[in-house]
Amino acid sequence: MKYTLIIMALLVFGSACKENKRSVREIHVYFDLDSLLDEQKYTLTDRGAKVVKVVQMNGEEESQTLEPDTAVWEKEFSIIRDFNLNRPFYVGLFDQQQKENITSYQSSDEDVAVKKFDLFYKEGELVRVESLLQESKYIYSNERKLTLEFKDGLLSFYQIDGEQKMILQDKEDYVISGSIRVQ
After folding, report:
1. Percent of the chain with pLDDT strictly greater than 70
2. What pLDDT is stored for residue 2 in this prediction?
3. What share of residues in the chain are helix, strand, coil (percent, to 5)?
4. Is the pLDDT of residue 7 over 60?
5. Residues 104, 117: contact at Cβ < 8 Å?
6. In Å, what is the CA distance from 130 to each residue of 5, 43, 46, 145?
7. CA gap 120, 148 in Å, rounded
8. Using a CB cutoff of 8 Å and minimum separation of 24, what contacts does 65-71 make?
9. Domain assignment of residue 125, yes or no
10. Which of 88, 135, 140, 182 is the least crowded, having the fewest Cβ atoms under 10 Å away?
């Protein structure tokens, strides 16, 4: 009897710790940036892509050449994933407009960090993504502009122009860019 209660308690505790699969759902209401980046990560790695990465911050510049594997690409793309439109609390907060070769998502909701997300197509193929992210909290403000360029279905260039202002500190400007070459 004593052991039965202990086993029952462990089973109840163990089942309470399991992840609720229904609560962790991916949503794909808008353009799926995460899937695009995942696809690029694997394709660029398979093709042995090299990237010349340049970081400019407050007038100083540093560059390096990398031949990333999937883990390094994931790290490179982590800041780009902040522009993802498919977050549960973003559903219904974007207006989509379609003009000839441009699909545009915009939100005027102040709780939405991604204010604008534009997709440019040429002959049905994605060639460019531009996005604007603005956050403003009590202690900081942050603005980032994203540019992704594609050639023959592969990411060929990415850039993030940003500025951040922390309370009681000077504004910091930065540019992170990468030019990608596939052999």
Report:
1. 85
2. 45
3. 25, 45, 30
4. no
5. yes
6. 59, 22, 26, 7
7. 10
8. 68/44, 69/45, 70/41, 70/42, 70/45
9. yes
10. 88
Q: How far apart are CA 167 and CA 83, in angstroms?
A: 24
pLDDT digit string (tens) for 66-86? 999 999 999 999 999 999 998
Is 131 buried (19+), middle (13-18) or exposed (0-12) by CB count in 10 A?
A: buried
Q: Which tens digits make up the pLDDT trace of 39-75?
A: 999 999 999 999 999 999 988 999 999 999 999 999 9
Domain annotation covers residue 5: no
Please spell the DSSP secondary structure of 87-107, one letter per residue: -GGGTT--EEEEETTEEEEE-
Residue 12 lies in a domain: no
Whether 115 maps to a domain, the answer reads: yes
Give me the number of domains the chain comprises: 1
Tens digits of per-residue pLDDT, 122-158?
999 999 999 999 998 888 899 999 999 999 999 999 9
Region for 58 from its dihedrals, namely left if φ exceeds 0, alpha if ψ lies in -120 to 50, beta otherwise:
left
The closest alpha carbon to 153, from 174, 125, 112, belongs to: 125
Residue 166 is part of which domain span? 27-181
